[in-house]
Sequence to fold (738 residues):
Amino acid sequence: MPKPSCLRIAIVVALIAWSGLAHAQTKLVVGNAGGSSADAERKVFYGPFAAANKIQIQEESFNQELAKLRSQVETGNLIWDMVSTTAINVATGCEEGLLEKIDWSKYMDPKVFQEVGGLSECGVPYLFVSGGLTYDGNRIKDGGPKTWADFWNVTKWPGKRGMLYRAEQTFEVALMADGVPPPKAMEVLAAPGGVDRALKKLEALKPNIHWWKNGAESITLLSSGEVAMAYAWNGRVASANKTNNLNLKMELGAGHVSGCQYWAIMKGSKNKELAIKLIQYAVSAQPQADFVRVISYGPANRDAYALLTEQEKATLPAKHMDKASLQLGKLYLGFWLANGDALLQRFVKFAAQ
Amino acid sequence: MLALVAPSILFMALFFVAPLGLFLFRSVDNSEVPGWLPRTVAALSSWKGAGLPEEPAFRALAEDLAALSGSTALPLLGRRLNHDVPGFRTLITATGNRVDPARPGSMREQIIGIDPRWGEPLYWQTIRRERHALTWFYLLSALDLRYGAGGGLERAPAESAIFLDLLGRTLGISGVVTLICVLLGFPVAATMAGSSPARANALLIFVLVPFWTSLLVRSTAWVILLQNQGVVNQALVGLGVLEKPVPLIFNRLGLYIAMVHVLLPFMVLPLYSVLKGIRPELMRAAASLGAAPWTAFLRIYVPQALPGLVAGASLVFVLALGYYITPALVGGPGDQMIGYFIAYFTNTAVNWGMASALGTILLLVVTLIYVALGRLAGLERLAVR
Fold:
């Protein structure tokens, strides 16, 4: 049967040609956290940028394991071109030569990032996330908790409390509950006796704490009523309210732990120029505002606020910046870089007892 | 004959023994400190460790650090020493970036001027202790031991001594899970072995279903079923059986349920294949010779089933030892297993020495258990005939 085999050959040839063409297109590989934030990034950043520049953007899962950056750079076998990562990873990756050092001020105005700690040598902030006191407005109707001391008050508001199973953020919150003004929390924690003070405060609440390990868990705990209140991240809360029709309320005025997620470029990436272009686009005012509309994390670029309505701004921490313990700066980075491992051990031991 | 096994031996050597050996070596490897601080290490070898070292040691340190300045070796050396003493990282990077060995005057004054911590013996003692190409530091830490100020061994402070607990807990949880799997798996495998092939296949599918479900889906399903506001608790409260929900998950009970659910097939399958081979005539023969059913079961059936039981139990036990995602999802804070820290040290902390030390100790303990069990139970006699 010559006819079908001719057809088959033609199909195969066409497929090869097509895949060849697809490969000819430049491909930018991004490591990001996946989940709802990656969905938003795809919609607002990757999609429009890829279409406008006729390139392909491929996403890979990156759960902030520094080892993944290290192994790619050290073996010289780069899989990713750029990553979305934390302030701690940007600082370490930059120092240890895993990320490209770039003079970002050539590509963007550093002033618009001032409020969120500015540009870093290797990274550009693109979203501002706040962790704060959250409860279900359908279960606690009037006179909800206003402070972290209220969060600790299980007589007035009985029920479990959801908290992050991590020393970082949880210790800062414990100090706020102990009366430390949020902007001073990091300073008190880093001073002698700070860690003991945080642990002592946590000890008082420990029988009522339900530890959560990933952001999605904090939301299900709240929506199922498994916990009465929880420490949760604002983007998760807002998108759960939107997509699952929940009525979760955040009390950012109680004090919050906030920091940025950064874009950074892998050391030695062949697509460095293109990655810079994508980052330049993603942190410009319009996409930054669009991003807020999709996921409700704060913009890093302050110009984006001008493009948002009052209602859209309501879930953002902009009004409560005086109540923030910021996850940036020398003190924060130095403290957690030096003590992170030791404190995690201590925390895990504490939580298990 | 040798030609036939050579490929598989070569394969084992290349892809099993060699990586395992490299991995074990990581737990004692200390090439960073003598490699990057050669002059300091040489200068400190004659120092006794009391008080502060002399000027030549300060000069050697200044020269070593200045040579590393600007390269990525400086922060990596800092990371390495930070494992021993928190804060060492910033001490190394700050000093390395500022020190100038060409500047006249006392190096000691210059270095202590950059960071007064260099005036404390602790940091010098640490470098001196880690001056060799091999170190016991990681293995000792994994056993909750450390070097005291005088150089002798001491227990890590109670607040951070965590690994022995974790090791014991990991072995305990794995042991209980194995026991439950034996108790649940034996009747299932025996029923399957005694059924017609069609029925046995149907039963096999039930056993295999958890095998084909993703770990996250499985764990989440248990959360939905067992949490306080979950299906089981709400039904029991609604029916009046319980007054208020009983915690069934986010504790040890929930962890056992979820782990047994996943690991049961590893018990049932090897057991089934052995039980299928036991000839039913033997039980009838025992009965005809006057053995009561219980006696026949214990003396005829169980001894023949033992190879399957041992194979299944070993599989379940070893697999259970490596669990850490399930404990994180359905266990409480007291149910964390050692795999959590191995993963943390490997991925997040990039402290491969510590990850490898924990793995090495786990491997050693398991090997010891097997050897001891083998001696006790005479495993060599259990070889399938």
In short: The mean pLDDT of chain B is 91. The two ends of chain B are 22 Å apart (CA to CA). The first helix of chain B runs from residue 2 to 26. Strands of chain B lie at 145-147, 153-155.
